[in-house]
């Protein structure tokens, strides 16, 4: 387990009702109804935990991509990171798998792969999931 050298920020969110309830951050800026997706036998029509995880991972990864791009003096401001979070059975339990697709306009394929790999090495979400779930990073050159 990795210990933090210092805490820079702590996010707080609470949920009631599980997958068929509500979630809210302590500052009230995020407040969502939750419902299992129809693919899992639920009613759909509301956000689910996998969507929240996908949005958080995509945003965090893009932040990491920007940081490594700045170090290499490569503009990644027009990049797009898409996170696909899948859930499914693993024996008697359930598990997650993630596919991250990274698109960086104006760079060649080798540079795109290099930046995506470097972002994956420093992204907090990638570090939290590494060795725990399958995460595939796909780099798509749009040069």
UniProtKB/TrEMBL annotation:
InterPro entries in the record: KH_dom-like_a/b (IPR015946), OHR (IPR019953), OsmC/Ohr_fam (IPR003718), OsmC/Ohrsf (IPR036102)
Pfam families, per database record: OsmC
Family classification: Belongs to the OsmC/Ohr family.
NCBIfam families: organ_hyd_perox
The protein, known as: Organic hydroperoxide resistance protein
Organism field: Nocardioides lentus
């Amino acid at each position: 387990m990795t210990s933090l050298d210092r805490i820079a920020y702590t996010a707080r969110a609470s949920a009631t009702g599980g997958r068929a309830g509500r979630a809210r951050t302590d500052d009230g800026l995020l407040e969502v109804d939750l419902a299992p997706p129809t693919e899992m036998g639920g009613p759909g029509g509301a956000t689910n935990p996998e969507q929240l995880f996908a949005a958080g991972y995509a945003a965090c990864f893009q932040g990491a991509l920007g940081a490594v791009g700045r170090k290499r003096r490569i503009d990644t401001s027009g990049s797009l990171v898409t996170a696909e979070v899948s859930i499914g059975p693993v024996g008697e339990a359930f598990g997650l798998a993630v596919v991250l697709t990274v698109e960086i306009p104006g760079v060649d394929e080798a540079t795109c792969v290099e930046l995506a790999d470097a972002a994956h090495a420093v992204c907090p979400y990638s570090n939290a999931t590494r060795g725990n779930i399958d995460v595939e990073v796909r780099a798509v050159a749009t040069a």
